[in-house]
Amino acid sequence: DCWFYSPNTIALISGQTGKLMYVMHNSEYPLSCFALFENGPCLIADANFDILMVKLKGFFQNAKANKIESRGTRYQYCDFLVKVGTVTMGPSARGISVEVEYCPCVIANDCWNLLMEFMQSFMGNHTPGIPSVFGAKHDSIYSPADTMVQYMELFNKIRKQQQVPVAGIR
Amino acid sequence: ASPFVLRARRSMDKSGMPWHLRYLGQPEIGDKNRHALVRNCVDIATSDNLTDFLVEMGFRMDHEFVAKGHVFRKGIMKIVVYKIFRILMPGNTESIEPLSLSYLVELNVVAPAGQDVVSDDMRNFAEQLKPLVHLEKIDPKRLM
């Protein structure tokens, strides 16, 4: 089965604190809205949070180059979910994101090795190390907020990259 | 400029429930003739790290209290009869003391925008509670 998904993020700067806040949505959780600060808390809220943000818009300003999203296809392979998407910032494509989820397990530590083996089977050398979002809490229950933090980090990495000149694309 | 106020609420007797965040706008114009106070309202359910998140956003806590009592419903009308408790040590809901010996009775309705006629239903219901309770429309500006 394949259908489209799209985690996307808008970056805002708080007029009060100068901090950068990300408001994110993910079609995997269509009724929710995620709001997070880098190295700070990630709030999971219902869709009315977007309405509240409209009320609060006087206190925030859009960060430069602020909207970034990943859109693509969702594959289900036995107990695994693989989502491959093109990351776009405005009109330009900036990279590819691959999200891999092992559905039966909710504790990262218990299935990391299995995930890694699965990823190596199709990603080879591109297989990443254990995500930093697990940090000290290897044994705590996984939450959608952990997924959104990883997307925020990925999007930030892509945002900071120089745009690849057309001649250099392989 | 008046500060931007948000209200965060959680259940003390049911664990695992989402927190409730509410924004209440200024009283609507044309309010003087209405029987009830009408304000724009946005309700949001959130995860339990709401207070940490609000502080990170730049909000600071103005006050907190515990409310214990009962909720009654009549159609879309909600009547809450509760006692307000002062929290003696910030964030510690175990040590509280009642603000007064009385209960506060509050009648409120959340309705789609423009349905002002509910204020007539509210006034009619309030009449039925007399002389046990005398409900009156409050002026939030007087309280600020």
From TrEMBL, chain A:
Keywords: Activator, Nucleus, Transcription, Transcription regulation. GO terms for cellular component: mediator complex. It is found in: Nucleus. One of its GO terms (biological process) is regulation of transcription by RNA polymerase II. InterPro entries: Mediator_Med20. GO terms for molecular function: transcription coactivator activity. PANTHER family: MEDIATOR OF RNA POLYMERASE II TRANSCRIPTION SUBUNIT 20, UBIQUITIN SPECIFIC PROTEASE HOMOLOG 49. Belongs to the Mediator complex subunit 20 family. Component of the Mediator complex. Component of the Mediator complex, a coactivator involved in the regulated transcription of nearly all RNA polymerase II-dependent genes. Mediator functions as a bridge to convey information from gene-specific regulatory proteins to the basal RNA polymerase II transcription machinery. Mediator is recruited to promoters by direct interactions with regulatory proteins and serves as a scaffold for the assembly of a functional preinitiation complex with RNA polymerase II and the general transcription factors. This is Mediator of RNA polymerase II transcription subunit 20.
Automatic annotation (TrEMBL), chain B:
The keyword Transcription applies. It comes from the Eukaryota. GO terms for biological process: regulation of transcription by RNA polymerase II; termination of RNA polymerase II transcription. InterPro entries: Mediator_Med18. Belongs to the Mediator complex subunit 18 family. Component of the Mediator complex, a coactivator involved in the regulated transcription of nearly all RNA polymerase II-dependent genes. Mediator functions as a bridge to convey information from gene-specific regulatory proteins to the basal RNA polymerase II transcription machinery. Mediator is recruited to promoters by direct interactions with regulatory proteins and serves as a scaffold for the assembly of a functional preinitiation complex with RNA polymerase II and the general transcription factors. This is Mediator of RNA polymerase II transcription subunit 18. The gene is MED18.
